[in-house]
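FAQ

Q: What does a record look like?
A: Structure on top, sequence underneath. For example:
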C-alpha cells in the first residue's frame, strides 16, 4: 500500500467533486447549489453528463454555473461516468481528495470541511461514506452509508452498526487520492449496481480503512434501498449481482441462485412482469458475458 503523510487540516481547496448526471437537470442544479454554499470550497466541481437527451449541454451549464461540465457521447453507466471524471480531476496535482456524489443529493454547508478534516487526521483511512436522510424534510428517514452483503447470496442490506460492514453506499464516497493511485478506478463492468461494493472491497484488500462520517449526513432525494425497480433497473441489478458473485464467491452459482429465485417469485406474486423480465435478462447476460 502506498504511504501517506499526516497533514494538518488546511483551508486550501483540495477536493474535486465528481457528479454523474443523466437528464435530471433540477436535481443536479440543486446538488451544485449546495456545493457552492460550502464553508470550505472545493477545488473543482465536475458534472459528468452521461449522454443526456432531455436537455442541451448549454442548459446544463446554465443550471450549474459553478461547475465544469464533461459531456460524454453515450451513457457509460455510473462507474464509467465517474472514471471519466476522476481522470479529468487527476490532471490537477493539487487535488488530494475525490468526492463521488450522486446528483440527487444536497449537502449541508459544513459537509466538505468535516470530510476533509476527518481524512487529514487519520492517515490509514482511505474512504468515507455519508449517512443519508431520505423522505419528507419534516420527518426524514436515516439510512446508513454502511452496507452488508447478507448470507446466503451476498444480498445488500443496511449494516446494523458502522463497525461491522462490507461496503459504503455509492451515493457519497469521499476518497483519498492515494487510494485511487493504489487501487485503481471503478470496475466498469458494473454499470449501475454493485460498483460501490466492488470498489470498497478492493480498497480494503489493499489495507486501507473505510468509515462512515456520522457527523456529516446529507439529504438524498432518491433511495438507497432496493424495492420496486423498473425493467431496466432490475436488469442492471441482477447483472451486477451475478458479476460480483462470479468475481468473489467461492461457489458462484450456489451463491447467486437462491436470491435470484426468491426475486423471481416475489415479482411474479406481485404481477411485476417488467421487473421479472429484467431479472431474467440480467441473469442470462451476467453468466454469458462475465
Amino acid at each position: 500500500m502506498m504511504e501517506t503523510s499526516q497533514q494538518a487540516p488546511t483551508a486550501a481547496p483540495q477536493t474535486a467533486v465528481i457528479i454523474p448526471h443523466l437528464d435530471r437537470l433540477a436535481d443536479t442544479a440543486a446538488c451544485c447549489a449546495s456545493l457552492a454554499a460550502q464553508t470550505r470550497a472545493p477545488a473543482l466541481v465536475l458534472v459528468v453528463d452521461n449522454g443526456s437527451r432531455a436537455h442541451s449541454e448549454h442548459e446544463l451549464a446554465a443550471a450549474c454555473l459553478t461547475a465544469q461540465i464533461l459531456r460524454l457521447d453515450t451513457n457509460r453507466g455510473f462507474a464509467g461516468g465517474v472514471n471519466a471524471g476522476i481522470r479529468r480531476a487527476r490532471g490537477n496535482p493539487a487535488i488530494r481528495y475525490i468526492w463521488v456524489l450522486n446528483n440527487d443529493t444536497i449537502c449541508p454547508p459544513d459537509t466538505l470541511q468535516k470530510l476533509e478534516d476527518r481524512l487529514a487526521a487519520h492517515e490509514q483511512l482511505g474512504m468515507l461514506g455519508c449517512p443519508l436522510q431520505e423522505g419528507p424534510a419534516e420527518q426524514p428517514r436515516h439510512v446508513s452509508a454502511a452496507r452488508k452483503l447478507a448470507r446466503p447470496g451476498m444480498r445488500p442490506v443496511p449494516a446494523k452498526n458502522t463497525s461491522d460492514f462490507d461496503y459504503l453506499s455509492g451515493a457519497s464516497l469521499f476518497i483519498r487520492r492515494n487510494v485511487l493511485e493504489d487501487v485503481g478506478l471503478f470496475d466498469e463492468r458494473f454499470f449501475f449496481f454493485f460498483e460501490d461494493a466492488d470498489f470498497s472491497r478492493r480498497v480494503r484488500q489493499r489495507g486501507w480503512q473505510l468509515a462512515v462520517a456520522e457527523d456529516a449526513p446529507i439529504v438524498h432525494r432518491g433511495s438507497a434501498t432496493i424495492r420496486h425497480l423498473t425493467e431496466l433497473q432490475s436488469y442492471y441489478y441482477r447483472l451486477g449481482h451475478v458479476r460480483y458473485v462470479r468475481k468473489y464467491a467461492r461457489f458462484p452459482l450456489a451463491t447467486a441462485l437462491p436470491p435470484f429465485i426468491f426475486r423471481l417469485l416475489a415479482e411474479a406474486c406481485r404481477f411485476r412482469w417488467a421487473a421479472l423480465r429484467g431479472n431474467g435478462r440480467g441473469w442470462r447476460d451476467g453468466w454469458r458475458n462475465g
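Q: Is there anything notable about this one?
A: Confidence is low (pLDDT under 50) at residues 2-9.
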